[in-house]
């Protein structure tokens, strides 16, 4: 499947072969700036302008977890580590944060000199860029 993030406060899951809309992920309170599937395809993480990231079931569209209370500005990107154990979020608040993907406890905060637009794990999950 394909997942897209939109200014209309939703993410949408599409069938990659025929373009059919499969799910609409709702519950955001601001525009979305990013989204990503977990490596096993079972979950989707979204990055929202309200300073939160949310984790949804890719099967039902239900919001399972909300990453909140740490970012003070828009979350601009999000991704799962390749092993699926971690979630990375970056924000206009000049931080990148590493979270436990199971219960979204904060593991580490990386501080920068300016707002961030992107972040990613290296192929072996040992580095964050």
Task: Record keyword descriptors for this entry.
single chain, 129 residues, mainly beta, Methylamine Dehydrogenase, Chain H, four-stranded antiparallel β-sheet, 46% strand, WD40_rpt, WD40_repeat_dom_sf
Verbal overview:
By secondary structure, the protein is mostly beta strands. It has strands at residues 2-5, 11-14, 21-25, 32-37, 43-48, 53-57, 63-67, 75-80, 86-91, 95-100, 106-111. The strands form 3 sheets. It has a 4-stranded antiparallel β-sheet with strand order 4-5-6-7, with no helix packed on it. A 4-stranded antiparallel β-sheet has the order 8-9-10-11, with no helix packed on it. The radius of gyration is 14 Å and the shape is globular. It starts with a strand and ends in an 18-residue tail after the last strand. The relative contact order is 0.15.
Entry summary:
It is built from no helices and 11 strands.
**Sheet with the most strands: spatial strand order:** 4-5-6-7
Shape: globular
Distance between the termini: 26 Å
The arrangement of helices and strands along the chain is EEEEEEEEEEE
Count of β-strands: 11
For the record, what is the CATH homologous superfamily label? YVTN repeat-like/Quinoprotein amine dehydrogenase
Biggest sheet architecture: 4 strands, antiparallel
Going by CATH, the architecture would be: 7 Propeller
**CATH topology group:** Methylamine Dehydrogenase, Chain H
């Amino acid at each position: 499947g394909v997942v897209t993030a939109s200014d209309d406060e939703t993410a949408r899951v599409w069938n990659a072969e025929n373009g059919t809309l499969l799910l609409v992920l709702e519950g955001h309170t601001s525009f979305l700036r990013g989204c990503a599937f977990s490596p096993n395809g079972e979950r989707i993480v979204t990055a929202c302008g309200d300073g939160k990231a949310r984790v949804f079931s890719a099967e039902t569209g239900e919001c399972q977890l909300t990453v909140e209370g740490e970012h003070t500005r828009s979350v601009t990107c999000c991704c799962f580590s390749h092993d699926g154990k971690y979630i990375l979020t970056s924000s206009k608040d000049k931080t990148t944060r590493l979270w436990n993907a199971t219960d979204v406890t904060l593991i580490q905060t990386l501080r920068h000199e300016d707002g961030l637009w992107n972040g990613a794990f290296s192929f072996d999950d040992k580095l964050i860029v």
